[in-house]
Write a structure and sequence with these properties.
By secondary structure, the chain is an alpha/beta fold. The chain has two domains: 243 residues, TIM Barrel (Alpha-Beta Barrel), CATH 3.20.20; 68 residues, no CATH class. It has eleven helices and twelve strands. The two termini are 37 Å apart.
Length: 332
């Protein structure tokens, strides 16, 4: 009945708010912020970048208004199921872009704050762009698109028989963002290699590179930086096989421990929505020796949060007032 559906739509925000209030009262409230990049970009179709000026502004605001936790403080509450301090915040980053070292780290150090950085190990020192950035370069910024194309791998086919216009190229880009995230990393990289060759766009943009090994080691030595793992090739773990999941999870841990000479005990699921990991994914992550794992859907961390699926709030390139507005549903 339409009336029932409309009633559910109206009640659902109230139910969510009630659950949030219950969790806050019983377990405190910590907002785990999720960043990716700190850099000024002309093109940012995924909206992953926050400018250095705005990142600095955001840190000033949270430091003035809320309690920003260190990673150790956050873990003390999460792992021991202790009530989080009222209106507390943890800062996290995903992926391992070079600008995290060049821009984000100095701003964090200036404010005496710490962040947890989850690194996709297969990109470190590769000289390659992350796969979603490579799709942007190939399909949205490429001046040498071929007249004809026919490339296929892993059941994903990219094909046209005449010179495509911008609209068709954007359509391919958007479709590939969905289909490539569900492929095993090796299959996806094979398809990208073929596209890179056929579309005459072999060079990565310096602005979009991950850290190299020397930068990662220097980065990890900062008191403002704690390193976690984020798989090897950044696939959607919930959409690949169990053996592939285990390899992505355990190898990323092994890579980072070998390079940095320290235990790596924190993990974040790539993409991190509820469809991007499963109960089995969480079990594999636990068995690999991680203490906890971060997801990516808005909410608060509290004393009863699941250790292997705590929530995070994705941060965009927001000015101060807009940033506070996005925090306001979770911080009182």
């Amino acid at each position: 009945m339409p009336f029932v559906g409309e009633l559910k739509d109206r009640l659902w925000p109230l139910v969510k708010r009630g659950r949030l209030e219950r969790d806050r009262l019983l377990g405190g409230n910590c907002v785990v912020l999720l960043y990716h990049r700190v850099i000024d970009l002309e093109h940012d179709p995924q909206l992953l970048s926050v400018s250095p000026r705005r990142f600095d502004e955001q840190l000033v605001l949270i430091k003035e208004r809320y309690r920003v936790l260190s990673v150790e403080e956050f873990e003390h509450h999460l792992l021991n199921r202790k009530r989080f301090p009222k209106n507390s915040i943890l800062i996290t980053f995903d992926d391992g872009y070079a600008d995290n070292h060049v821009h984000a780290r100095p701003i964090l150090e200036k404010h005496g704050l710490q962040a947890l950085f989850f690194i996709a190990s297969g990109y470190i020192g590769s000289g390659r762009e992350y796969w979603w950035d490579e799709l942007e370069r190939l399909f949205l910024l490429n001046p040498q698109v071929p007249v004809q194309l026919d490339v296929e791998a892993g059941g994903v086919k990219v094909q046209w028989a005449s010179l495509p216009g911008r609209e068709l190229l954007r359509s391919h880009y958007e479709q590939l963002l969905v289909s490539l995230r569900a492929l095993p990393s090796g299959t996806r990289d094979g398809l990208l290699g073929a596209l890179r060759d056929r579309m005459s766009s072999p060079l990565a943009r310096p602005s979009h590179l991950p850290m190299d090994h020397a930068a990662l080691k220097a980065f990890a030595s900062s008191p403002s930086v704690v390193i976690g793992a984020h798989t090897v090739g950044h696939p959607s773990l919930g959409q690949i096989g169990e053996d592939e999941q285990r390899e992505e999870i355990t190898r990323s841990k092994r890579d980072l421990e070998e390079w940095l000479g320290m235990p790596i005990t924190r993990f974040a699921y790539p993409f991190g929505t509820p469809s991007d990991f499963t109960e089995r994914t969480m079990q594999i992550t636990r068995e690999a020796g991680f203490l906890h794992a971060a997801a990516n859907h808005p909410g608060i961390a509290h004393a009863r949060s699941p250790h292997f699926a705590y929530q995070r709030l994705l941060v965009r390139d927001w000015g101060g007032a807009e940033f506070l507005r996005h925090l306001s549903p979770y911080l009182w």
